[in-house]
TrEMBL record:
It is an enzyme of class 1 (oxidoreductase). GO terms for biological process: formaldehyde catabolic process. Residues 204-336 form the Alcohol dehydrogenase-like C-terminal domain. Coiled coil: none annotated. Its cofactor is Zn(2+). PANTHER family: ALCOHOL DEHYDROGENASE, ALCOHOL DEHYDROGENASE-LIKE 6. Belongs to the zinc-containing alcohol dehydrogenase family. Class-III subfamily. It catalyses: a primary alcohol + NAD(+) = an aldehyde + NADH + H(+); a secondary alcohol + NAD(+) = a ketone + NADH + H(+). The lineage of its organism: Eukaryota, Viridiplantae, Streptophyta, Embryophyta, Tracheophyta. It comes from the Eukaryota. Residues 36-161 form the Alcohol dehydrogenase-like N-terminal domain. GO terms for molecular function: alcohol dehydrogenase (NAD+) activity; S-(hydroxymethyl)glutathione dehydrogenase [NAD(P)+] activity; zinc ion binding. This is alcohol dehydrogenase.
Amino acid sequence: MSSIKHPHVITCKAAVAWGAGEPLMIEQVEVSPPQPMEIRIKVVCTSLCRSDITAWQSHAIFPRIFGHEASGVVESVGEEVTEFQEGDHVLTVFTGECMKCRPCKSGKSNICEALGLERRGVMHSDHTTRFSINGKPIFHYCAVSSFSEYTVVHSGCAVKVSPLAPLDKICLLSCGVAAGLGAAWNVANISKGSTVVIFGLGTVGLSVAQGAKLRGASRIIGVDTNPKKGEKAKAFGITEFLDPNHSDQPIQQVIKHITGGGADYSFECIGDTGMITTALQSCCDGWGMTVTLGVPKVNPEIKAHYSLFLTGRTLKGSLFGGWKPKSDLPSLVDMYAKKEIQLEEFITHNIPFEDINKAFDLMVEGSCLRCVIHMK
């Protein structure tokens, strides 16, 4: 009988986090066969996202395999899977698309009820894990766990892509770059000639800048406390840079002054709920829109004076830029192939899998945009 029809347990290397903030350990793990509606993927490349760092530093579920921005090749498929076959090239996604639930069919949201953001460290289908060491379960992250040579995901959390697309580049579309572009295009729908301000110039913020530039924004103001980011940000569309630490006035007042009343659009890409209020205050009366993309580490509640909304401002949340992953991501891959969007410019480091802790160090230090981790 074919091994594709009856996949077996695979033993492979994975970077396991045993505790909050502890260095990852390269371990031999057992990866179970895919269950119904699941696929097992041989990971080719995976990039480190700030969300991985936030979860790794928190007192969450351990032991755990992090990673969610990834590209790879389908190794085997579970029962009932008709969309994928062995050898398909895929991207993993942290929020899926079942195409059957109310939000998926609405055309108004990408928040899938069946395959939404998984926070408990297990699979969507049966709430158990596919990883183990000596019989002890190792928990998942966002139902992806790409810091492993092989992983198992629900078929609704993978996107088939062209075999010609470079897997070491398009893995960035699994989260950060797509999230920023979508926030600019789908959520805010930036108009030509508008003024945009972006708080936080990491990968997500710079992807917003890229999206704003492609939409024809006339001014794209970047705000960050790291002065080294100012010059580099110009390559992604930033026209002006502000460092709040070098200002005598609150940054929102500076922005309202230099824009003649506030920006048309502001984006909070830090993960700080206090900055959401600042971003709202940086928008103009009447039509100013603030979009929040960051995931806060602490203080998840937002505080803002009602008058900010009474005078016409709008606050919108954005998960994965509003993209429906299976429906929309192939078009972004096509845009990259046509050189319509930037990807490799975000890659500051290429790192072998065995040196994955170096990627974590660089991200914590603020010394990188995206580290792409290459499996053997």
